[in-house]
Amino acid sequence: MSLVSVIGAGSLANVFANVLHDFLPEFKLHSVLARNQEKVQVFASKYNCSAVFSFEDFLKNAAPVVVELAGGAALKEYTLPILKSGRTLICLSSGAFTDDAFKQEAICTAAKNNGRICIVNGAIGGLDFLQTCALQRGASEVVIETTKSPKSLLGAPALEGKTLDLTKKMVVFEGGVQEAIKGFPKNINVGVITALASENPHTKVKIVSDPEVHSNTHKIIYRSALADAVMEFSGKPDPANPKSSTTAALSAAACLKNLYSPISFW
To answer: Where is the active site (predicted)?
Structure first.
């Protein structure tokens, strides 16, 4: 049985833990770390793992694989020490990697210490295709269009001081990935993942608010001399966290399974 530690004890962490319990019995949760001590204790009791209240204690005894389900701030704070310890880090909060200096330091740290960074696909797919096409010479055009309900977008920094119309469909953002993740840090990790996988820093992001939708939809449009593709993914919002999709947590479990499986799909 393989052990795994988790950072985060919120809704996505619970989805991840449930998947391990119900579908991946070859894995066992070893420990959990989060800022909210009450949530940590509840999570640890529910899933029969160790509750840890400081990162120093967590790192001393963490499993060989650590899964981050706690947000970009936590990822930035904990990534380098985890990689220095030679562990594998599976992360959902890819938005942190828009900071190029942080990304490069994480890559170098992993390489020097036999660590590994696994950025999961979250609410989308097609990363294998984008990585394949990135191996060609020449330019590519990459656009990702995300459509969500207004409720899912409320509270975003880009909307501060603005009134979001809850009754009609409207474009709330168009621009680059860096600007998108700053303005919508809890909504557009998929844009960062798309830019990273395609190795295209000029990836364009469009965010649409639509009161008629009941799912989060992400459309990736790719064009180059090698291939053209349109990939669309629709997932139901997590009931406990409408800014995210349940499939995001499932993708972390699928990545974990792939790490240990004798067969993997690319």
So the answer is: 218
Residue given tokens 């992001």 in the structure block: 205
**Distance between CA atoms of 210 and 251, rounded to whole angstroms?**
25
Q: Which CATH number fits domain 2-119+246-260: 3.40.50.720, 2.40.40.20, 3.40.50.300, 3.40.30.10?
A: 3.40.50.720
Q: How far apart are CA 167 and CA 211, in angstroms?
A: 6
Residues designated catalytic: 218
Q: Is the entire prediction scored with pTM above 0.85?
A: yes
Residues 6+ apart with CB under 8 A from 261: none
pLDDT digits (tens, 9 = 90+) for 242-266: 666 789 899 999 999 999 999 988 7
Check if the beta carbon of residue 118 is closer than 8 Å to that of residue 90. yes
Does 123 show up as a binding residue in the annotation?
A: yes
